[in-house]
Specification:
single chain; about 250 residues; Rossmann fold; 7-stranded mixed sheet; about 15% strand
Length: about 250
Amino acid sequence: MGKTFLKPNSLSDNHTHYCPGCTHGVIHRLIAEVIDELKIRKNTVGVAPVGCAVLAYNYFNFDFQEAAHGRAPAMATGIKRVRPDLNVFTYQGDGDLASIGMSEIIHSANRGEKFTTIFVNNAVYGMTGGQMAPTTMPNQKTTTSPFGRDVKDVGMPIKMANLLAALQTPGYIERTTVLKPKYIVKAKKAIKKAFIYQMEKKCFSFVEVVSTCPTNWGMTPQDSIKWAEDTLLPYYELGVFKDTPKMEEKNAK
């Protein structure tokens, strides 16, 4: 029986360190497939900060940089400004991007830096111990909110795609997920569009991917998918929040 698909050339042969049921591996594959299809592997640079994807450079067959916690957008800005011919993307989690790196991503987006951000939102700090993140849901239990997130005390979860879409400058903002195959197809299309816009030097692009974290949620992989669909997706609604290049093309016709 022949293979129905092959490993993307942009993925290495290394085994990942991710926990069973984690969807980082799926997102990695989508990025690799897009880069292969666009034939941009030789001039692509990824930037990963501290977080679950801290070792992402081991899993891709192209250049990768390591940034300090939350500082991936700053590093991506420097790389892209010095080498505008490169395709640069950051790969960040919610604790990294929406907490310690909040100012970095907002100002990069507001300046309209021409790189792409892949934002993995699993509603918790993953690598550092399962603490409450800015995206943690109301009443969700974490190691730093053992009785559940108290919104009266710490506020509501931050919707990063909505927040960035409210800025005037960013061109493409979409929230996706990879919980099931029907979502994965749409997530790949969003990632591909983000890279194409960058290749065309059009705008800052941001793709949020709602993910799971079975280990820190204390669930089985199957239960974590159901919980994410029942709890995360109604709050973190999927869809395109901004697509300025598409609107400009439409208005030009």
